[in-house]
Automatic annotation (TrEMBL):
InterPro entries: F-box-like_dom_sf (IPR036047), F-box_BR-signaling (IPR050942), KIB1-4_b-propeller (IPR005174). This is KIB1-4 beta-propeller domain-containing protein. Residues 1-28 are annotated as: Disordered. Residues 97-381 form the KIB1-4 beta-propeller domain. SUPFAM superfamilies: F-box domain.
Amino acid sequence: MGSGLMRKKKKKKKTNNKKKRPKVSRYPDWSKLSPDVLGKIFETLSSPIDSHRAKTVCSNWYSVWKTCLHKPLYSLQIIHQGDSPTEEDQTRKILGFTQRSYCMATFGSWLLMVEPGLKFCIFNSLTCEKIVLPSMESPIRGGKVTFKHNHMYDDGYFLRNGSRRDEVRYEFDSVEWKNSVAALWIDEVTGDYVVAWTYIQHYLFSYKKGDSSWCNLNHNRKSLVLFDMACDKYKLYLYTADHNIRFFDFSGKYPIEKKSENRYWKHPFDYVEEEWEYVWKRKLAVRPSGEVLIILSLKLVLSEETLLFYIFGMNLESFKWERVDSIGDEMLCFGHGVTVPLAFKDLGGGTRSDTIFFVDKDVWPDHPDHDHRVSNCGVFDIVTGVVEWPKKLYRSMNGTQWFVWGVVY
């Protein structure tokens, strides 16, 4: 046969047109679910407590939670152990606290609580996490300030500062405690926090996570009268009675007042109200940008009385304080010290941007609105100037502190 050689035919390799499946780990990263799937999960959570727990799973879940429109906005009534609930809405007792426990400040779902014996703690009303702060009887940094037990009263103390001695009674209805101002800030991602409070317009105490003891910030022992204070991102802002803004930086080992970095220093808030304007309260708030706002609660008396809120910000070119007509996609909780950005203009249930949330004691008590309102919490529309009193959407503590569920602090 020709060459006598048999040529072997080469076998063609079979080609598999099927695409190979990507290898799937036996242990998938369930925390990296798609935003659509996570959004569906969040929408099925009817309880604010479950919603709060879901957002703390990881940073990815928290990022999606912030943009979720249908978060639960149901009201929660927070009562002390031993009280009798009078509302049928979701009621949550603060276990471990008594009727003599007092809420001094709030930040989101976190409460700054003080108990008999001047025992301070930070408490999460949703998760029941409790952070116990050092005893006020422990050594205090920054001046010769000491707390010594007053044996005449079970929960009373003597507060000494050099030759000065003040009596501290555990009676929160007293003028000394009513004039006390407090602030709380906490980073839910890192767990860092800063606490500050004043007493009898003379003492200013602070504590930051990791500190060995409380710190006295009023070193010069002079009178320290404050309208308000606010804490945000390691900075404590003070709104003083002479209408100046001071701030302390807590980012280092010790809190430091940095006047050189304070663009508001020596530019006091100099607004003079008209004869038909009657100011009731003055508060401070810090925007996410770091801009400081001053908010006035007042009534306008012309042919009829009108409840109003004025917002002022400083023009950084002229260094003059000017009226602010809008805060954009943010909302403001009167007395909470910060504005809160919202992912959507309207979250429903009365929670929307460009508004101020307040309680009845934040406005003039003799106004006719108090006779017709359906709750003790109101909403002021900054653009329209209209006050609404939504029914049972928000709850208050001690008649002054309150919470709006479903928003991001």
